[in-house]
Fold each of these.
Amino acid sequence: MEIEKYQIDAHNHKLENEHERRFSFAASEHANVEEVIGKLIQFQIAIPSWALGTGGTRFGRFSGGGEPRSLEEKIEDVGLLHKLNQASGAISLHIPWDIPQDYEAIKSLAAHHSLRFDAMNSNTFQDQAGSAHSYKFGSLQHVDKAVRQQAIDHNIEVIRQGVALGSDALTVWLADGSCFPGQLNFRKAFQNTLESLQEIYAALPEQWKLFVEYKAFEPNFYSTTVGDWGQSLLYTTKLGPKAFTLVDLGHHLPNANIEQIVSLLLMEGKLGGFHFNDSKYGDDDLTAGSMKPYQLFLIFNELVEGMDAKGIDHATGLGWMIDASHNVKDPLEDLLQSVEAIMLSYTQALLVDRKALVIAQQENDVASCQEILQHAFRTDVRAIVQEARLRTGGAAQPLELYRELKVRENLIQARGLKTVATGL
Ligand SMILES: [Mn+2]
């Protein structure tokens, strides 16, 4: 299914008066509103192909119906999101779940939906049918060079596929680690992983980036070989200038100060990108901003401050991706909510009075520092985000229009009720 321009126009027309009233108030409150809108229009968040189907837990998976059955249908789904919010103009693929059959056809389909290919994701956390070696005891860290070589070759193959699609980054997330004390020699596991990453790094094309994602625990429960930002930074520093650390919000131990991590990685020029999601307990993969919107704002506050300090372009300097997958919502509704939450936090961060904050920090005026940040956080910026969306042809209320147009019902009709997205 495709959403037509006249459908968006009719929806927007209905909400026009209310929006005008709310936006003119917001514009009167913020002198830099036009500058903010310009940045919002540029800002795009990549949708991961694996979030388009209903996720599951280790206890079960409840299919949602109308899920994409192929890479083409996944691109179609992201196209629907982008048509509605004009802020989801990229898709992040996962190999081997999304291997294209015809690269040119896939590229032109993506172009038809105004989508580009964001970072490619490799998979050495599962055994694939027909592969010679098992990753049960790790991949890039494995004690057996033959297993490591299989994992290295897979990553190089993913780079090759990404080149054919016009992507320019590889994300490596490893499940490598150990479940019990004594199982691994930490130093050897690190060395093996580093040597394997060096071989992958050597295969990167000139303009490519390598993102090394870390995770504190799970599926391994005693140690993880890229367990935190310090370990990731060690690898990326040793690898070279094309290697960066990737921060997934759900991959920290409870109460970690993620905004401080972000700030220091940016300072070192080693922050590569983000996987947005939210969590209450662990790697819950919940909708961005659904649990801790203040934390999301504080992260964006550091991002904006840190990127501006280094002259980094907000839209293109880092990789912005969602990594969530929920099991009780319509995945497309969930993604619309995540993108909206990210845009709201980014907007609030753009409204922080930086000059006043610098003065308050310099004077150790702690109460004022808090006031300045919370003033921005408590500002209702929904009309500003909506205005940016309207100016680029998006829907005033993407989720509302999604329901008005009965998108899910249409997808079920076209694809069937009992479809399972490839890879899930
Ligand atoms: Mn992730």
Amino acid sequence: MTLTTESSPLAALTRQDPELAEVILGEAARQADSLQLIAAENFTSPAVLAALGSPLANKYAEGYPGARHHGGCELVDVAERIAVDRARALFGADHVNVQAHSGSSAVLAAYAVLLRPGDTVLAMGLTSGGHLTHGSPANFSGRWFDFVPYGVDPESGLIDHDRVRDLARAARPKAIVCGSISYPRHIDYAAFRAIADEVGAHLVADAAHPIGLVAGGAAPSPVPYADIVCATTHKVLRGPRGGMLMCGAELADRVDRAVFPFTQGGAQMHTIAAKAVAFGEASTPAFSAYAHQVVANARLLAASLGAEGFEVTTGGTDTHIVTVDPAPLGVDGPTARARLASAGVVLDICALPHGEGRGLRLGTAAVTTQGMGEAEMARIAVLLSGVVRDTLDVREVREEVRELTGEFPPYER
Ligand SMILES: *Cc1c(COP(=O)(O)O)cnc(C)c1O
């Protein structure tokens, strides 16, 4: 897809609403000429964008295929069945629900299936890399459930399964959640399953980040281990912004009812069609190669940042995520992020295993979609270090970022 004013349907928008069209084109330019290292972001294909921008956006479809509360659902039923069938085949899951509007909605539905308000839940603490839905007091999870947090070892940055088991034995949680927004290593789902079984808890895998790597065979699958797997479709998986749930046949009806009508209304059929397109893409050898390249790039980026003096959490990565402490370079995370932003490098800050300080979280999903490889990761690490240390001129780096991204446009121009 060409994101220019001449192309339809943006041409129609430009004619009718130039003010908004300018924002959209400006954002497309920003995404293309700065460096997207936010670990949760990616570039969807033109086919996914086409499904998102299709007339399926007009259709009301409360319920599930074959059992809707609205007429005229024959064709959107086909779209949803294709999405479900493709996801079941891709992940080897008995049952898939593709209606969750977001990753958070998927987690809400999973809790609705397994928990009652007031139940105890063991999950990674927010200060260690847990998500808002893992017990934040600002979120429904922290308000309605009694969360007990587990952390990571302050030295190694790794999950200490003995510690998780001790906490589980003491707290006797109704459910255990494994999954994180910043943990760079594979989750040991078998270990969490064993702990859950020992204390009679349900296991929820919140695989929002790694599910795309799972699809490409570059990370272990939570599907054989968790009672319910929650995921997003827009991170490494490279689909539209949205969520999904997977479970065994015995929970299928309850999961579906927890999504609709318990926590959501009408399904977003354009998004579900776009999820189907993304699952189709993720089933190809090309996507498997992509997922493995994402990890290879992250490993090289971690090693290069380590060589530049950053302290790399856990000493490296198994996934698309790299987290580092810039303290050895003389700055804290927020300062580093601000300097990098002015050089056109876009990334997040994150919790660190030790202390109160904030680190930097980087991800390689988007730059790998653009076609960047290990050589570019090494170049990026040098630029990052120069900007954070303040030994490179920010304006010069901004130009170099423009050059680099210009060699790897996310969309055809
Ligand atoms: C991204 C993420 C979510 C939430 O996804 P949204 O679509 O933003 O609601 C939930 N859990 C984890 C672990 C995540 O990384």
